[in-house]
Design brief:
alpha/beta, Rossmann fold, 2 domains, seven-stranded parallel β-sheet, six-stranded mixed β-sheet, 13 helices, elongated
């Protein structure tokens, strides 16, 4: 999930199962087992119950970005299959008060289904109450309003397979450095559901699966603008790092700047989410070895399918996850499309030729 400036929101407190568990995985806010998004599909019977009924949907997003555009595209395509019209789409600009106003505007259009990423758990809990009273089916992306109960208040939370994103990042970095060496670990130093699970999964995978790789430097980061400064300090103390994990793409850009300033072409970097600068470095054979992303289009498709299943009275899973995707130089064009439902930036495509 693209993070932007969203890391100040208080999000649902999910957790990763302990590394000693038989099967580590992403789990929900109350320990719910994750249901793969591929299991949530509309049957012919569902479609027959939905078509011709005049059902309406609203998409209430936290911001506008390539990520939300892809989520919207996936949702709209699924709604279109069932003849459900998307009558409202909003962008709250990371403003909880504005999102509350967006909800009121959407409810005036009497949608039967609302897909949304709630910005603030407390404000959202109050703002969505009228939708629940109206019988509107709510499907949330990653976040959950405070005190909401599955089934009675909302149909599902849909998010990334956060554990797999972190694990795939660990696997990619291990492959790039030959399964042995010293690495740095730059994690998100804030209480943020998405990044915390991803970061923890990277670390636990390295520690449990790669005994010849040692995390010799750890640095928390809360402000992406400080990434270059923090990376410079890490590299000064550990000039022989074989690799660095960076919590997401924006601070990874600062880490790249630090490596370039030091003339370091050896240290490999892996990060999460897609961006043009890190993608360009990767396809040019620079420090970046892989990017791990979510499938945003699939998130939207799943949210829409879940909302419509709830609308026809079917039980829906409480917690659903969409797959993770490792993007490398070799699959960058396809990977960008799978994740964001759009072509990679032209600069990246040209450099990959």
């Amino acid at each position: 999930m693209k993070l932007g400036s969203f890391f100040n929101a208080a999000l649902i407190a999910g957790s990763v199962l302990a590394a000693g568990s038989a099967y580590a995985q992403t789990v929900g806010p109350s320990g719910e087992k994750a249901t793969p998004s591929a299991e949530v599909t509309l049957s012919d019977t569902d479609l027959s119950k939905l078509k011709g009924k005049g059902y309406k949907a609203a998409l209430l997003w936290h911001t506008s970005s390539d990520f939300t555009n892809a989520v919207s595209a996936g949702a709209k395509a699924e709604f279109e299959k069932a003849g459900v019209a998307v009558v409202v789409q909003t962008d709250a600009g990371f403003d909880a008060a504005r999102q509350r106003s967006d909800i009121e505007t959407a409810l005036a259009a009497k949608p039967n289904v609302i897909l949304a990423l709630p910005l603030d758990p407390t404000t959202s809990a109050e703002a969505f109450r009228q939708a629940i009273k109206d019988g509107t089916k709510l499907v949330f992306l990653s976040n959950l309003p405070s005190g909401y109960k599955h089934g009675s208040d909302y149909a599902a939370i849909v998010t990334d397979d956060l554990y797999q994103m972190g694990k795939q990042a660990a696997d990619a970095l291990a492959k790039a450095i030959g399964g042995k060496g010293k690495v740095g670990y730059i994690f998100h130093d804030a209480s943020y559901y998405v990044t915390n699970q991803r970061d923890q999964a990277f670390k636990s995978t390295i520690e449990s699966s790669y005994p010849d790789i040692k995390i010799v430097a750890e640095q928390g980061i809360s402000d992406p603008a400080r990434a270059e400064e923090l990376a410079n300090a890490m590299l000064l103390q550990n000039p022989d790092l074989d690799g660095i994990y960076v919590t997401w793409a924006e601070p990874a850009e600062g880490v790249l700047s630090a490596l370039r300033s030091a003339g370091n072409t050896k240290t490999k970097v892996v990060t999460l989410d897609l961006s043009e600068p890190v993608g360009l470095d990767m396809v040019k054979g620079g420090n970046v070895t892989a990017l791990v992303a979510d499938k945003a289009y699939e998130l939207g498709r799943t949210m829409a399918a879940t909302g419509m299943k709830a609308l026809v009275g079917e039980e829906t899973p409480a917690f659903i996850v969409a797959p993770a995707l490792t993007v490398t130089k070799e699959n960058v064009a396809d990977g960008w499309k799978q994740s964001l439902n759009r072509d990679a930036p032209q600069s990246v495509l040209d450099a990959a030729k």
